[in-house]
Design the sequence.
C-alpha cells in the first residue's frame, strides 16, 4: 500500500435524511449532482446518523416505561430513566458506570457510552413534548455491503464503504471516528509476515484500517452544523490488498475473553 | 470548520534518520526537494519513530541489568527481562498484564503496550549480538512546538504539527494512529456550546482532533516498508479555530482519577 496521496472530499449539499428515505439512492443522486465520478479504490465513509435516520431508528421517550433496573441505574448515572431503559434494551451488558457516564457493550459488540444512542442533530417535534433519541443502525455491516453492492452493480466500480460514528475511548479525552461497519476492504488489515524497511518481519501488526478511515473522514464530517454525512476518500490502493483479505466492521471487535478492559 | 476537502501528501524519498541528525532540517530540506510549499493551516504529521531516532533514544539490551521486579514480571508476560526492565523504567505504573501483553502508563501519561518501545524498523548491528530497542521521544509536545516554531520563523506560515504513533486500544482489534504530541492547533477541540444542524446545543463534544489527524496520516505512513515518516495534511481551517483554543498532545490524556479503565 505504498500510496503517497489521499484525498478526502465532502459530498456537498447532502439533503436532510428522514425515515423511509432510500439513503443509497440519495448518495448516488448526490454524487451525480456533485459531478463526482467514483473510481476503483474509492472509499465512501457514511455517518451512522444518516443510516439510522433512514432506517427510522428513532425512539420516542414518552412511549418508554423504564424497568426497575433502569430506574435504579438512572439514579446512579444521573440520566433520564427512559433513556437508560432504551440503552439497556440495546445492550448486552453494562461495562462501567458512574455519575454522568454509562458505558455498555452494545448488542452488536461495540463498547460505547450510551449504546451509541444520541440526541444531537435530530429533528424534534415543534411541540418539543416528545423527546426522541436515535439508535444505532440495525446492522452497519449489512448497510455497508448493500451500498457497496449497489454501486458495484450500477457503475461497475469496486469501491469500499465504511459506516462511522464518533466515540469516546479509555484513557484519552475527546471523541474520534470509529468504524461501526465496513465492506469491500480489510477493515482489520493483517500485516504480520510483511517486512519492515530493514527486512525484519513485522512484529505486531494488525492495523485497524477502517477505524483510521473513519477518523480521517470524521475530520471533515464534524460534529456540529456542518451537515457532511458522507465523505469520499480517494487514493487507497485497495486492489493490491486482495479480496481474500477483506473483512467487515465486526472483525474489529476484540472478543470479550481477550479484552483486559471489561 | 466547514471544510469540504482534505489532502494528505507523503513527503517522498525521506532519508533514513540516524542519531544526531537534525530532523527539523531534514524535513525542511525534503519539502524543498519535493517542491512542496507550505500553506497556512497545513499540518505536518511526523512519525514518532524518526523523532526517537534523531534523539538517539536507542537502548542496547545487552547493557541492561533487569531488576528482580522486571525478572518476575518478564516470566508473567513472557518477554525478555531486559526489555521489561526498560519498559518499567519508562513507566509510571503497570496498568494490565497477561502472557504476551504488558500495558503501562508511560512517564508522559500515555497508556500503551510496552511503553511504546519498539523493535521494528530499527537498524540492527550486522552482528545482531546487540539487540536495540527504541524508546518514545523525550517530549513529543516539545518537538512538535520546535518544528512548528522553526517553520513559522523560516517561512512565515502558520502550520500545525502532530507527532503520531500506532497504538493498540481497549475493546478493539488492530492499531490506529494516535497523537503523542501536537502544536499549533486544538489537539482537543472543545465544541461544547456550538449548535447542531437544528440549532440545539451540542451535548458531548470534545473532539480529539489531533488523534484523528494522527490516524489519517497513519493510513499512508503504513507500518511496513513504505518509509513514509512525514505526511502533510492540507485543508484544515485552523485559522478559524482561534489561537486561544490551541492545546497540546498532553491535553488528550484523561486524568487517572477520571478514567474508569485503570
Sequence:
Amino acid at each position: 500500500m505504498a500510496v503517497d496521496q489521499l484525498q478526502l472530499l465532502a459530498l456537498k449539499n447532502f439533503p436532510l435524511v428522514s425515515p423511509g428515505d432510500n439513503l443509497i439512492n440519495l448518495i448516488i443522486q448526490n454524487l451525480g449532482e456533485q459531478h463526482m465520478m467514483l473510481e476503483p479504490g474509492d472509499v465512501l465513509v457514511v455517518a451512522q446518523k444518516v443510516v439510522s435516520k433512514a432506517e427510522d431508528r428513532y425512539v420516542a421517550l414518552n412511549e418508554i416505561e423504564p424497568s426497575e433496573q433502569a430506574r435504579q441505574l438512572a439514579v446512579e448515572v444521573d440520566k433520564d430513566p427512559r433513556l437508560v431503559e432504551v440503552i439497556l434494551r440495546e445492550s448486552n451488558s453494562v461495562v462501567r458506570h458512574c455519575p454522568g457516564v454509562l458505558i455498555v457493550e452494545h448488542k452488536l459488540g461495540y463498547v460505547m457510552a450510551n449504546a451509541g444512542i444520541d440526541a444531537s442533530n435530530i429533528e424534534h417535534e415543534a411541540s418539543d413534548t416528545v423527546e426522541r433519541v436515535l439508535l444505532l443502525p440495525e446492522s452497519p455491516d449489512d448497510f455497508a455491503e448493500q451500498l457497496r453492492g449497489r454501486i458495484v452493480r450500477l457503475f461497475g466500480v469496486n469501491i469500499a464503504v465504511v459506516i462511522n460514528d464518533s466515540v469516546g475511548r479509555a484513557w484519552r479525552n475527546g471523541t474520534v471516528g470509529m468504524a461501526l461497519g465496513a465492506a469491500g476492504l480489510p477493515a482489520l488489515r493483517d500485516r504480520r509476515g510483511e517486512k519492515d524497511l530493514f527486512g525484519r518481519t513485522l512484529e505486531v501488526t494488525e492495523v485497524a484500517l477502517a477505524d483510521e478511515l473513519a477518523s480521517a473522514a470524521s475530520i471533515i464530517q464534524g460534529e456540529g452544523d456542518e451537515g457532511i454525512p458522507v465523505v469520499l476518500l480517494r487514493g487507497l490502493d485497495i486492489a493490491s490488498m486482495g479480496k481474500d483479505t477483506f473483512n467487515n466492521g465486526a472483525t474489529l471487535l476484540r472478543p470479550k475473553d481477550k479484552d483486559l478492559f471489561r
